[in-house]
Amino acid sequence: MTKPNSSVERLQVLGxxxxxxxxxxxxxxxxxxxxxFLLVLADEKGVFWYLKQMDSAGLGVAGVLLICSFIGWxxxxxxxxxxxxxxxxxxxxxxRLRDEAAVIALNFPRSTNLGPYEYLVAEAVSAVQRHKGRLxxxxxxxxxxxxxxxxxGRGVSRTMxxxxxxxxxxxxxxxxxxxxxxxxxxxxxxxxxxxxxxxxSIAQLAxxxxxxxxxxxxxxxxxxxxxxxxxxxxxxVKIMTTELENYASxxxxxxxxxxxxxxxxxxxxxxxxxxxxxAAATAQTHVAPASLVTPTGPVVDxxxxxxxxxxxxxxxx
Length: 317
What we know:
Elements: H1 7-18, H2 22-42, H3 47-53, H4 56-98, H5 116-129, H6 138-163, H7 167-195, H8 202-286, H9 313-316
Helix pairs in contact: 3-8, 4-7, 4-8, 5-6, 5-8, 6-8, 7-8
């Protein structure tokens, strides 16, 4: 591929490329992109030329801005990947949980590799396990639900902290990138004014002007992508936070219904055991051992014994 010698020739080449068919355009662009980058970098007035004209302070600011740019792009890509993976795991676990008969009967391994929804359910189940076997009355259910809601609230707070990871890096780049570029601009203007004399040449003014222009450009290149990425990722985090709060509310409702059902079953079982105990005690009082039972029969009155002589009988006779 021959190198275009002027800007007009480069525009003519681009016009020919974009008039091609899509398939041919793709092939030509794939061949042209590496050469375009080489032209931008190695041209007579390319990036390297501007960097060579800068002084040490301008190069330092430019280096810091390049590092910030790499950090910002890495943070955006990593955060986007994390958001996508967390949302996939949340939706998959929510679909799987619909098929479970009881949430409070689930067991989770003690590991840190749990999704946000899994972590909330694990916290709720852990709070329920502390009241296992003691749920009989409605007051017991209310006490257990208080602990469950506190555990779910703590889980939501910790998960939201995890959602907002790496966002502070992007917000710092959004606000700090232009200021770093402005620092380089001011420094370049100071250098330019310091080199101004009656016989100042372009070679003497070039370091300051190049430093101001390059650092301003790099500051904008850091801040503009970080702004768009930050706004997009912040919207996704807000959506996931709302979904998390809604899921926590529905989880608390489901756990409360399951606890009420378990308390009702425990109450019925306690009543049945009490009834059986009363029946056994009643049967024991009515049925005694045979050695302690007296035989029953007709009651015979004892014979009446008359005295041999009746007082006053002789007088009457």
